[in-house]
Structures are given as C-alpha cells and as structure tokens.
Design goal:
Blueprint (H helix, E strand, L loop, with lengths): L6 H12 L6 H13 L5 H10 L2 H13 L6 H15 L3
C-alpha cells in the first residue's frame, strides 16, 4: 500500500521546525536574551544560563549590552561580562 502525501505537508513541517516551543519559564528567558543580543544560534546556551542563574540579573546584563553601540559580537561580549561577574562576585 502506497500513501500519497500532500506536497504542502512537508512545507508545513519545515515551518513548524523553525518555530520555538517554550514549555518552562527559563526557556522563555533564554530566548529573550538570545533575541536581545541577536544571537539566536546560541539560544541553548542562554537557556542553560537562565536555568541555573539569576533571571533578573541575566536580563539586565543582556539589556545593557544590547543597548551599547559599537559591539560587533554582542553574544561573546555578554559571555565575557557574565563570566567576570560570576567569578568576580565570589572574591
């Protein structure tokens, strides 16, 4: 038995794959950070940070960096600032 699928079916599957599915609050926080920094390619990293970190502090650092001019790679700069803050606060 051969089943014929509608040609639009595969297009619909491709569209759904691109959409983000958020189930938990930290996932939304991570996606917000990725969007602020224009770094959607590393969204899983930001989701992981949001899962284990201080949500309000992460968002404030990301917002501050997103508003700055002249930063070419805001995602990398964010990670540098976040690492300094994370390890600098323990001293």
């Amino acid at each position: 038995m051969v089943v014929k699928l509608d040609p639009g079916y595969f297009e619909e599957i491709r569209k759904r794959r691109k959409e983000s599915k958020v189930y938990v609050e930290f996932q939304l926080t991570g996606l917000e950070i990725a969007d602020m920094l224009g770094d959607r390619a590393h969204k899983s990293l930001y989701i992981r940070l949001a899962k284990g970190g201080n949500k309000s502090r992460l968002l404030s650092v990301a917002k501050d960096i997103a508003e700055r001019k002249g930063i070419k790679n805001k995602g990398a700069y964010f990670m540098k600032v976040w690492q300094k803050e994370k390890f600098g606060s323990k001293k």
